[in-house]
Design brief:
alpha+beta; 60s Ribosomal Protein L30, Chain: A; 3 domains; four-stranded mixed sheet; 14 helices; elongated
């Protein structure tokens, strides 16, 4: 019981101090939602005998919406996804019996106070789902256009290469995903240089690839200069749209042999068929 009281006191201390520190902006935020999760995380960490510092760090990030976890490349970025999914399900279940606040977007309070209403409601040429890309390469998304550009320049002989330059967009790509000498699998995943070198079929080129910022959107241009003076250049405007075969192959890689049957069930369903019965087909 003493541990429970100590954890509760610690949680309240975190919540109140953080809520008070939101001033003078605190009128825009509901402290229970923004600071409460931080206090709850700290208290629960004491009771579960996990690291309170890590628990509070996760909570600060998911409650505040900070992208800093991507800069630090910490596991918190994965928790963002889990938190979004779990919170969404919790809200959907709550809607069965609790009326929701309908003025959240128009109130001028909270994280959505800065939402551009006109931009949000403006007509679009396609649906957002149609514009969403799928990661088809085992590398950071900042490297995908460069990978696809580099793949068109092969085959190459390592000894024939004088210089490789990759010009990538957006500008944040270089700040977040440049590493000419990655030492681990995670570092290689975050290295545009490594991704381009592998795509060229010559991983040893990694520390010789020069990166530059340029282009629009998520485009990339890769230029290879050879000893005989030939210059090969390729540009990708962005990662290519995933075909049905691409998606099927990725689904099966992620789900294993059992995933194939479910995918085929999805493809066989008629338009307008309720999705709910398909849940029974999940492995």
């Amino acid at each position: 019981m003493r541990d429970a009281f100590a954890a509760a006191a610690f949680g309240y201390e975190l919540t109140v101090r953080l809520a008070a520190a939101l001033a003078p902006e605190r009128v825009r935020w509901h402290p229970t939602a923004v600071a409460g999760i931080v206090g709850a995380a700290g208290a629960a960490a004491l009771l579960l005998d996990t690291d309170p510092a890590d628990a509070v760090a996760h909570a600060v990030s998911v409650a505040g919406g900070s992208p800093w976890a991507i800069v630090e490349r910490t596991g918190t970025r994965f928790l963002h996804r889990a938190h979004a999914a779990a919170s969404g399900v919790a809200c959907a279940r709550a809607a069965a019996g609790l009326p929701g606040s309908r003025g959240g977007l128009e109130s001028g309070r909270g994280a959505y106070a800065a939402v551009d209403r006109d931009a949000m409601l403006a007509p679009r040429a396609s649906t957002c789902l149609e514009e969403t890309s799928f990661r088809l390469h085992a590398a950071t998304g900042f490297a995908h256009a460069a990978i696809e550009a580099a793949q068109t320049l092969t085959p190459l002989e390592l000894g024939d290469v004088v210089r490789v330059t990759a010009t990538v967009a957006p500008p944040a790509a270089i700040a977040l995903a440049s590493n000419p000498a990655p030492a681990s699998d995670e570092e290689r995943w975050w290295s545009i240089e490594h991704a381009v070198a592998v795509a060229l079929g010559a991983p040893a080129l990694c520390n010789r690839i020069e990166l530059a910022a340029g282009g629009e959107g998520w485009s990339a241009t890769v230029e290879v200069m050879l000893r005989d003076g030939e210059v090969r250049t390729a540009t990708a405007d962005g990662p290519h749209a995933a075909s049905d075969d691409d998606l099927r192959a990725k689904w099966q890689r992620l789900t294993g042999s059992d995933g194939g049957a479910f995918f085929e069930t999805l493809l066989s369903e008629r338009d307008g068929e309720p999705f709910a019965p398909l849940v029974a087909a999940l492995p």
